[in-house]
Amino acid sequence: MAPLDDPRQMGRIVQRIAVLTSGGDAPGMNAAIRAVVRSADARGVDVYGVYRGYEGLIDGRLSHMSARTVSGILHQGGTMLGSARSKRFRSTEGRKEAIRELVEHEIEGLVVIGGDGSFRGADALSRESDVAVVGVPGTIDNDLSGCDYTLGFDTAVNTALEAIDRIRDTAASHQRAFFIEVMGRSSGWIGLYSAIAGGATEVLVPERPTDIEELQRRIHEAFAMGKQYCLVVVAEGDDAGGAFSVADRCGVGLAGVSHRVTTLGHVQRGGAPSMRDRILAARLGDAAVTALLDGEDRIMVGEINRGVVRTPLEQTWTHIDRTPQELLDLMDRLAR
Ligand code: F6P
Question: What are phi and psi of 154, to 5 degrees?
């Protein structure tokens, strides 16, 4: 394919970039890799894929990618490049080795698709080298500021929702209370969205302290109001613990109410990305390449109100994106 424009002719310095996925995988990461590779290819920029995130970078696991390397991955969950949570990269020594690899491969810009931990690493790498970094928000947790939604969140919530709908069938048949644990170590976005969309009675999120006695009272009240079942969505990082712990602590006070616990776990991380995640991946992968060609460094590209915005990387984790009180209140009003 003929390049759309030649970066050298246009006076840009970036001629070779690399892309990696890091941290927990998220549906849409493959679509984002594809967008980065094809967008770079269309502009005459060379692209390398880094296998297994920062771990692979330290070990020199880089390979040249072409438009054909990323054929047939758009609709697949996971990440074809693999991912890792790298301990070695947290040390200056580890990062030195990673930088050595980038310099050896003459890579001037790096696209990092991941969450806050991955961005902290990218920020440090850029400060310690001449390599520019651009982040693409990729985590099911939706806990980064600088974007309305992170890649994978929409798919993960839809997966949780499908499970909640199925649980409702059996909960209603047996007039039971269910404690359903969803992912979110320090963030309640998946919990809140799946609870509202799934018509849950209660949601427990890390952003709001949980009062077990009050929860027991509300569960009894739900049945007293004539409800046939009660769904309590618990974000894994809630201060009262996960769904098993909440059910244990609640159980004694639930005389007369049969209850069960379901943990959805890593099911939420897999599967084909939704339409929203594919479109987001296409836009942000392309925007990341544009940002590098524009000479940007240490920023994240994200979508806000349908527009692509660039946010200083550091802000994405320092300005914590908490679940809004307004939606927690909405949830409470509708759970009657
Ligand atoms: O990627 C985010 C996330 O799925 C969190 O919601 C969860 O707490 C964590 O990753 C689980 O990580 P791991 O797969 O390493 O156990």
Answer: -60, -45
> Hey, whose CA ends up nearest to atom 10 of ligand 1?
24
Task: Please indicate whether residue 141 is annotated as part of the active site.
Answer: yes
Query: Which atom of ligand 1 lies nearest, measured to the CA of 139?
Result: 1
Q: Is 269 in the pocket of ligand 1 (CB under 6 A)?
A: yes
Q: Taking residues 245-266, report their average pLDDT.
A: 92
Q: What is the pLDDT of residue 9?
A: 44
139 lines ligand 1 (CB under 6 A): yes
pTM score: 0.95
Q: Output the CA angle 103-107-113, nearest 5 degrees.
A: 120
Work out which ligand 1 atom sits closest to the CA atom of 185.
8
The pLDDT assigned to 321 comes to 85
Cα–Cα distances in Å, from 225 out to 128, 277, 336?
61, 39, 8
Distance 265 CA to ligand 1 centre (A): 9
The string of pLDDT tens digits covering residues 112-124 is: 999 999 999 999 9
Q: Which amino acid is located at 208 in the chain?
A: R
Rg (C-alpha) for the chain, rounded Å, is 22
**Atom from ligand 1 closest to the CA of residue 115:** 1
- Of the listed 46, 116, 123, 141, which one is catalytic? 141
Tokens representing residue 49 in the block:
């894929």
Domains and CATH numbers, the chain: 7-140+275-318 (3.40.50.450), 156-267 (3.40.50.460)
Q: Mean per-residue pLDDT for 274-281?
A: 98
Residue 3: what pLDDT?
A: 47
